[in-house]
Amino acid sequence: MNIIYGLIFLMAAPFAGGIIIGMDRKISARMQSRVGPPILQPFYDVLKLFEKENIVVERSQSFFILGYLVMMAFSAALFFSGGDLLLVIFAMTLSEVFLVLGAYSAHSPFAFIGAERELILMMAFEPMILLTAGGMYLATGSFFAESIAASSMPLILLLPGVFLGLFYVMTIKLRKSPFDLSASQHTHQELVQGIMTEFSGATLGAIEIARWFETVLMLGFVYLFFGFSPLLALGAIIVLYFLELFTDNTYTRFKWPLALKSSWLAALTLGMINILVLWVYIKGGL
Amino acid sequence: MTFLRKSPWIIHYDASSCNGCDLEVIACLTPMYDVERFGVLNTGNPKHSDVLLITGSVNEQNVEVVKNIYGQMPDPKVVIAVGICATSGGVFRECYNVSGGVDKVIPVDVYVPGCAARPESIIDGLLKALAILEKKKSAMNAGRKARVKS
Prior knowledge:
heterodimer; A: mainly alpha; 11 helices; B: alpha/beta; Rossmann fold
């Protein structure tokens, strides 16, 4: 049964992710009082990339990107089929490592600095996402996404600090300002395109598709906090994504030390204190 | 059916322009004209681009840069020479250090004259370039099939 959910997810997620990013670009454009591209633009972009010539600097780079896409799809499918959160998190980390290896293998200075920054961002992101899994385990007694989503406990009330901390670091995974320093997309291109610089054609298309999976997976984590009420969860996801967009359009890019320090500070204060309080509360209750 | 027309990503290079045409190219991206509504993105990376927008009469120092950028773009690709300097060298045509137009260095598909070229004419040139891009794609496909047969 879970495998069927996983398979359905693998088919549906790219469409959902693409449409979310299409709406993202449209709303961003409206915030800048532009008309903006059509909502289906991400699909046009990827289909176009598959029509283009694929310039490969080093043969291994296409292999690494395939690994990135497969692992990202795997971790997202695992999450949506109700799998172990810890395994999801580590599979996601592994997929990111594939992306970094792909960027390193091209021997380009821009891709190199982009890859270094991506590693730092991973370091900034990991503690908070692990604390999220830990906090959810403390509250529900399970690491499985299935049981966490099914539990009637209002996790958002038990883990408000963890939720805020996750909201802070989620900007990294959605590749939004102020944390978009590894790819430096859009018009602020101090690194050309950072980690993406040396990829073209179908390989770049694969990276885009992996990004759709990643976006859906991240929003799935938000859902877990509101598992007791799917409607409320949907509302929360929309509000949260809108706030991410708002941040993206109002903040300039952080330097890497500030990105790292502030993420760890969010994890330490919001995440740790919340979990400690919950732990004391549960111990007292027992 | 090709999606090249729906998502042309551009790279803009200033080959010793006076910045007049550059500002008009940037103006195309602003809320007034917003070319992103046609799917246009300014990538700043030749490996992600379909369209090369060049402004300015190419001088001796950036001939190699122009060739390098053109060479790094994946096929199919088109080149648009924006402004009179890029199309023919303009008033700098006779200068000792100037090539006199982009087409002396790399093949150009669309010429957009003007000093400076108007954003409307740049967008018009871009749409003309997209038709050429599609033709190049179908030629590429035909070439591939022919090679498979022989």
